[in-house]
């Protein structure tokens, strides 16, 4: 499909071509592959799975949950093929349903994208903090304050890159793919050949760990039906943000097929690469006591199994990968902000929907980064004796809940439309029905689990209750949902009509 044909298809959907359509199909795949980033999620949320289930939550949990996520991705690939717009899932929901569907989908998606940007950049800052500490021989203190300072610096850098170099972003997305492939391969090779001994196959595929404080050990109903599912946050968080393929579809050549293919392929290849990487972690995890002592922190594996230079090299490889990931998150988040504002849904929408002379939504980039910094402020505090703020996992949960609930609405609407749906060139055919049902049920289940307390001390009334342990994801998500529901009821339903056409007529062939 030529650029002219892409612009014509966009005009048929109601929009004139404002963003520069310079991205190749590979670049479209690259942005979601970079946002998924096995060098980010596999490292930063490893401890969540280690403490809640142990090896089986990783060795079995990762491929199991990956299959469900791939099904969600395939359902979304069909939708982006039919509707390749920057609004992505918000546009799909408003078109297949009513303005109210678009309203809730758009806000959930926007919240999720801002939260995933915050969590990725904070994770990058955390690993950068550790890397600098190691390189300076302890001269740089790896404190929470310094981690937050680096977080702000990383956010600023990502904003500047996105503002001043549209073509550079596309290039860096492509470089990011190869960095993730080569970097992960190097890490796996180090963990295979450098340690003096490894864990057994039995440990990796059958051992369980329960450091959550819930239940009476590593068995029984509480473990299998509460603790272990909490460990699945590792997979569900890592493999997310793949809707970026839709958000940059107005900048992608041949978007009806390229964006659909890029979306599901980014999930598929990340799932395979991530599983290999995580298995390498587990086989190198020979000092279980020290890993438990450090709260399941993945760095404890490297520090106990490798020489100091090799451990530092792994930290550095992951940090750079996470930097690429955060850059891609800002790109996706800003395009969603631009598209949702273009349709008048965001307060001050005229400001956020502006593009500069380089056809870049500068104001949307700045606004999203500022909000990402604000919602991460609680990460300045951590529970006594811990170096990992629960606030980080809360932001992770917000990202997962916001994004996947936003995915749920258009998938359910497509299921409801049945044969009335007009597919694009990439379609699921008759398989859409069973796949959409599976996707909807999985999203509902994980959304319930990830608003639950992560520790017993997060439950009011517990003798060890502390506010620093509270998972504030349900509070923030609940407040936002109530807020946008009230906003809709009292005001928006009278003026918000969904996507606004920016073209009066179709371009001449």
From TrEMBL:
Pfam families: AA_permease_2 (PF13520). It is found in: Membrane. It comes from the Bacteria. Keywords: Membrane, Transmembrane, Transmembrane helix, Transport. The chain crosses the membrane at residues 26-50, 62-86, 107-132, 144-165, 177-194, 223-246, 267-286, 306-330, 364-384, 390-413, 434-452, 472-490. Its main location: membrane. InterPro entries: AA/rel_permease1. It is a multi-pass membrane protein. PANTHER family: AMINO-ACID PERMEASE BAT1, OS04G0435100 PROTEIN. This is Amino acid permease. It comes from Nonomuraea guangzhouensis. The lineage of its organism: Bacteria, Bacillati, Actinomycetota, Actinomycetes, Streptosporangiales.
